[in-house]
Specification:
Number of helices: 5
Helix content: 55-70%
Order of helices and strands: HHHHH
Number of domains: 2
Strand content: under 5%
Largest sheet: none
Length: 175
């Protein structure tokens, strides 16, 4: 930690070059976010496929197939929203502020949300809950072992989310 009583020494050219290189390395993250955008496109294709499949079950299928289809769409939308939050918050946190231009729509939380505020675990808990519900709706096609694993994995995420929320509140970071 720098002592405020000691005057700062001027940085050498080598030190400034190293610091600029380190700071500029943040742009190495940009391809990761572009890859996540391609992941969103893949999720969009999956949604289109699921909608076509769901529509095929409307007339001949029963309520369970339709419910599972809708749950699959909800699952995909939660995953896509989570990916988008990571893209926007990550880019703004680590690379550069997003310039949406004049008249561009800027989401209220952009620029203020960090990775601790993403509610990442809450989204994962919701996704595992949907998978658990799909498992129980298809109970006749699932083994007891598979259902036990679904419940166990879901409970691990629930307990983790509760513990992280508790730690957040105890540290004074909670709202």
């Amino acid at each position: 930690m720098d002592d405020p009583r000691v005057p700062a020494r001027p940085a050498s050219q080598v030190e400034r070059l190293i610091e600029r290189t380190i700071f500029g390395s943040r742009w190495l993250l940009a391809p990761f976010y572009l890859g996540l955008i391609l992941g969103l496109v893949a999720l969009l294709a999956k949604v289109a496929s699921q909608v076509v499949d769901l529509l095929g079950h409307v007339l001949p299928g029963g309520g369970t197939e339709i419910t599972v289809g809708i749950l699959s769409l909800i699952d995909l939308s939660l995953k896509a929203s989570l990916v988008l939050m990571v893209i926007l918050a990550g880019y703004e946190s680590f690379i550069s502020r997003l310039d949406v231009g004049e008249g561009g729509v800027r989401l209220d939380w952009m620029g203020r949300v960090g990775f601790g505020d993403l509610k990442l675990l809450a989204s994962v808990v919701a996704i595992t809950a949907i998978h658990l519900l799909e498992g129980f709706l298809n109970v006749e096609r699932r083994s007891d072992r598979d259902l036990a694993w679904l419940v166990g994995i879901h409970m691990v995420f629930v307990v983790s989310a509760v513990l992280l929320t508790l730690m957040d509140r105890l540290s004074g970071q909670g709202h």
